[in-house]
Amino acid sequence: MEIKVTQGNIVEHATPALVVNLFKGVTAPGGATGAVDHALSGLISRLIESGEITGASGEITLIHTSAITSGGSGSGLAAERVLVAGLGESEKFDYEAIRRISAQVARRLRSLKVKSAATIVHGTGIGGLDPAQGAEAIAEGTILGLYRFDKYKSSKNGDGDGEDGEDGGNGLELIELVEMDGSKIAALESGVARGDSYANGTNFARDLVNEPPNVLSPTEMAKRASAMAEDAGLRIEVLEADECRALGMGSYLSVAAGSTEPPKFIHITYEGDAGNADNNVWIIGKGITFDSGGLSLKPPGSMVTMKGDMGGGAAVIGAMQVIAALKPRINVHAVCAATENMPSGSATRPGDVVRAMNGKYIEVENTDAEGRLTLADAICFAKGKGAKQIIDVATLTGAVSVALGKGHIGAFSNNEEFYGQVEQAASERGELIWRLPLGSVTKRQNNSVVADIKNTGGRGAGSITAAHFIHEFAEDTPWVHLDIAALNMSDSVSGVNVRGASGASTRLLARLVENLAG
Ligand code: BES
Ligand code: MN
Ligand code: ZN
Question: Other C-beta atoms within 10 Å of 9: how many?
Answer without folding.
Answer: 12
